[in-house]
Amino acid sequence: MPETEYTLRSEILDNERRIWIREPASLQTDLDLLIVLDAELYRNRVQAPQIIEDLFESGTLAQTLVVYVSSVSMDVRWIECPCYPPFAAFVTKELIPSIHERYPKTVQAKERVIAGLSYTGLAASFVALTHDGLFTKVISQSGSYWSNDCWLIREFDGQSLNHPPAFFLDVGDKETQEYVWHKEDVVQTISQVEGVERFRDMLLKNGYEVRYDTFSGGHSAEAWATSLPNALKWALG
Question: What is the pLDDT of residue 178?
């Protein structure tokens, strides 16, 4: 499992984070790009590196550069994930240029995919929707579209992009709890299922391509692991 790692300092966010990169066998031809937010959750709990390694071995991701982006800490995650413009600026003005500099063959990537889960599923969608044409596809697993009274859904209803990304949305059939107090100032009034379905309906209404899957389970790493291979095959297969 060939990986490289570096630390990226963000002047925009005034912090630094670890970046892990899984390189394909050849770096001499144009590469697709997969940016995975929530690196610690995906790497340590979802076991995404092994899932992705299996897809490399099957040829599904043969020419894809996989970039895992650290969330720094849970406290930072609470700040950066709920549709936070400085985080989107970090991705577009600091992270992607650093990838292009290290891997010039990603500049002409045919597929540019950003992936996240729960709060970072929301963040991935926000980054893609606010930067027209930057990403071709979004993978959002159990995205927290309930955040801030469904702000992202309301903000983009009626808006159109010149180069809209396609969306893979999934959610578990047991993610039905309402009125969840995540912390003192963050309350989720609708269920994860309802939030994802509202976001899906807004996208379809406004002409986006959407694949919507439900999986058996709740808001858990084990459940996301069962859905992730289908999401990656949809995005990059």
Answer: 83
To the nearest 10°, report the CA torsion of 40, 236, 127, 211.
-100
Q: Which two tokens stand for residue 92?
A: 């577009």
Separation of alpha carbons 143 and 146, rounded Å:
9
Query: How far apart (Å, rounded) are the C-alpha atoms in residues 237 and 181?
Result: 38
Length of the chain: 237
Could you identify the residue written with the tokens 């969330």? 71
pLDDT of residue 1: 57
Task: Report the CATH fold assignment for 3-236.
Answer: Rossmann fold (3.40.50)
What pLDDT shows up at residue 204? 97
What is the distance of C-alpha 201 from the center of its chain? Answer: 19
Residue 145 near residue 187 (C-beta atoms within 8 A) = no
Specify the amino acid at residue 28: Q
> Please, which residues have CB within 8 angstroms of residue 190's CB and are 6 or more apart in sequence?
146, 150, 178, 198
Residue 1 CA to residue 109 CA, distance in Å, equals 22
Query: What's the CA dihedral at 153, 159, 164, 166 to 10 degrees?
Result: 30
Cα torsion at 88, 89, 94, 96 (round to 10°)? 50
Residues of the chain with pLDDT under 70: 1
Strand partners, 66: 22, 34
pTM for the structure as a whole: 0.97
Report the alpha-carbon angle 104-109-115, nearest 5.
Answer: 110
